[in-house]
Amino acid sequence: MLNYVWAGLIILSFVFGIAYDVRDLSKDTYRNGAAFDISLSTEGAFDEAMRRQNVTVHVSPNYYKSVYSSLGAPDSVFTGVIIRSADGIQLRFAEGAALPEPWSTIRHETSQRDNDMRGTMVFRDKTANSATASVTFGAVRFVKMHAIAAGAISMAETAVSLALGLIGVIALWMGLLKIAEASGLIHSVVRFTQPVFRPLFPEIPKDHPALGLIVLNLTANMLGLGNAATPLGIKAMEELQTLNPDPDTATNSMVMLLAMNTASVQLVPPVILVALMGLQINELIFAILIVTSISLVVAVTSARLLSKLKRYRTAPVDSASQSISTS
């Protein structure tokens, strides 16, 4: 079901992006190919022999609003530079200048690396140290589709980075789990914690290692050890899967474990909050305990109540009837 949800969201994002870009193209939002009139001034005289020359760019806010049908307008004065080459004259605004839409999008699409507004310029009237000119910015099309593609690539890189970062942590804790299992530590944890956790997980047989892994997972969560809790939770789910009569459906114990993980009590503040707040985190300890305790009670109660409903109840597998139907 989750795959269908993700597929639907992806299709919806593409539909939205295409509709938005088609609207921009039909309205010519970015005035592709159209010249924009500006005024220039310089401290010295305009020198055709200079490859680079610093200038001051004057923009009329009212003219900007009329051209782009925009409510916002840029500043009337910008610093910039004229660059002369064999391909013509290019005007570049100062890097990182505050620009309203749609100039901000034009800059992002045409000069994302340098973050400067640029375009091809043609002089119209020129005196010693002032001139009028027209500048044509780069064409901008399919802005939303570019943003969707860039976002997809960025999140793919993030996913790979997270996966590589977790390899070492998961390998470490899985190795420690093997040692704990071989030394009998997990069985000892099971014996001590059965009276408390058996009522929450009645489907788990007595002395089963899944119960010990659940305890270790919840303990890691309560101590704020998120990196340790992840492999412990995965291993606990693997053990619970061995008791699952229907591999494609989560058992009540699996749902209960997931609910308790989602809303577990935090006895130790999360590392992220400690890093952000420092010693001020002490002011939130009691609030964190109260909130997470309430959330845990709500999660456990919801899981138990929903397991009683016929719609969510897992039908027990009758081994005798299953063998008869198979034969």
Walk me through the structure:
This protein is an alpha+beta fold and 327 residues long. It folds into two domains: 31-140, no CATH class; 184-314, no CATH class. 54% of the residues lie in helices and 14% in strands. The chain is built from eleven helices and six strands. The chain has helices at 2-27, 61-68, 103-110, 143-183, 185-197, 209-222, 226-241, 252-262, 271-277, 285-308, 319-326; strands at 36-41, 52-58, 77-85, 88-93, 118-126, 130-137. Strands 1-2-3-4-5-6 form a six-stranded antiparallel beta barrel. A hairpin with a 3-residue loop joins strand 5 (118-126) and strand 6. Helix 4 crosses helix 7, helix 5 (185-197) packs across helix 6 and helix 6 packs antiparallel against helix 7 (226-241). It is elongated, with a radius of gyration of 32 Å.
TL;DR of this structure?
The protein has 327 residues and is of the alpha+beta class. The protein contains eleven helices and six strands. The chain has helices at residues 2-27, 61-68, 103-110, 143-183, 185-197, 209-222, 226-241, 252-262, 271-277, 285-308, 319-326; strands at residues 36-41, 52-58, 77-85, 88-93, 118-126, 130-137.
